[in-house]
Amino acid sequence: MPSLTLLCREQPGVTVIVVCGELDVTNRAQFESFLGERPEPGRQVVLDLAQVPFMDSSGLHVLLAFSTDRLGRSGTVRLAGVQPLPARLLEITGVLTHVPVHDTVADAVAAARATTERSG
């Protein structure tokens, strides 16, 4: 089973979740459980995927369910640092039209904070 490391970093107004490793069927439950425990409703969330070289449909499903749940709780999910293979999956499935993607975590955090300031 591929190793998956998940870290949560709280910043003012934004929760950054760092994902390290492949996202696939072997660790789907771990990813889903971790996201389910964080963060509180209404928080802006950035998923740092810079260290995710591969994502299959299982990982994509968890990511989409989490994003939909956040939207239903007045929050948003932004992706940062998406690597080529996961980016291709996001592109061919049309996810890029629904979930904002940024080159860096800093860009995603700045966009999340700007969204919070406009709505707050």
From TrEMBL:
Protein name as annotated: Anti-sigma factor antagonist
Signal peptide limits: none
Organism: Nonomuraea spiralis
InterPro entries, A to Z: Anti-sigma_ant, STAS_dom, STAS_dom_sf
Pfam family, one: STAS
PROSITE patterns, sorted: STAS
Source species taxonomy: Bacteria, Bacillati, Actinomycetota, Actinomycetes, Streptosporangiales
Family, similarity comment: Belongs to the anti-sigma-factor antagonist family.
Domain of life: Bacteria
Residues in STAS domain copies: 4-112
